[in-house]
Amino acid sequence: MHMRTDERILQLLEKHEITDQAHLQSLLARHGHDLTQPTLSRHLKKLHVRKVDGRYSRVEPGAAEFGETELRLAPPNLIILKTAPGFAPALAYALDEKVPKDLVAGTVAGEDTVIVAVADPSKLNAAAAALKQTLKLS
Q: Buried (b) or exposed (e) across 106-120, using 16+ Cβ within 10 A?
């Protein structure tokens, strides 16, 4: 019987330095787990696996989801979020899903920086407050 896919993913992450999903996909296929890239991404999200310092590793569910995050305003309508290396894309995705669309027009992510475009410059402080609440920042 095959090891469950989630268990195999965690086992492979412990044994190998995996720097991209294609490598992980090929290792899984060798063990009888043929996954599409979107399916693999869903498994990684569910398992709290993130790319940190250039390689995939598990972030324990109790740990800060996106590492240390610093928020600063860039008037008239931008908010800059600095986070741990590798966390910016996941942070931007989470914000796109959770922050009200009337406050945030969209996000752009780099490796450790997310730029948040506020839809209406007069709502910059309200958007910052919503981001702080979403991210549980003080």
A: ebebeebbbbbebbe
Domain co-membership, 94 together with 123: yes
* Domain containing residue 14: 5-58
| pTM of the entire predicted model | 0.56
Q: Work out the burial of residue 6: count CB atoms within 10 Å of its CB; fewer than 13 is exposed, 13-18 middle, 19 or more buried.
A: middle
User: In this predicted model, what pLDDT tens digit does every residue of 2-50 receive, in sequence order?
Assistant: 569 989 999 999 999 999 999 999 999 999 999 999 999 888 888 888 8
Query: Same structural domain for residues 76 and 131?
Result: yes
Do 92 and 126 fall within a single domain?
A: yes
Instruction: Provide the pairing of β-strand 70-74 with 104-109.
Output: unpaired
DSSP state of 40: H
CATH, residue 87: 3.30.1360.40
| Burial class for 56, CB neighbours closer than 10 Å (0-12, 13-18, 19+) | buried
Q: Strand pairing of 70-74 and 78-82?
A: antiparallel
Region of 32 on the Ramachandran plot (φ > 0 left; ψ -120 to 50 alpha; else beta): left
Total domain count, the chain: 2
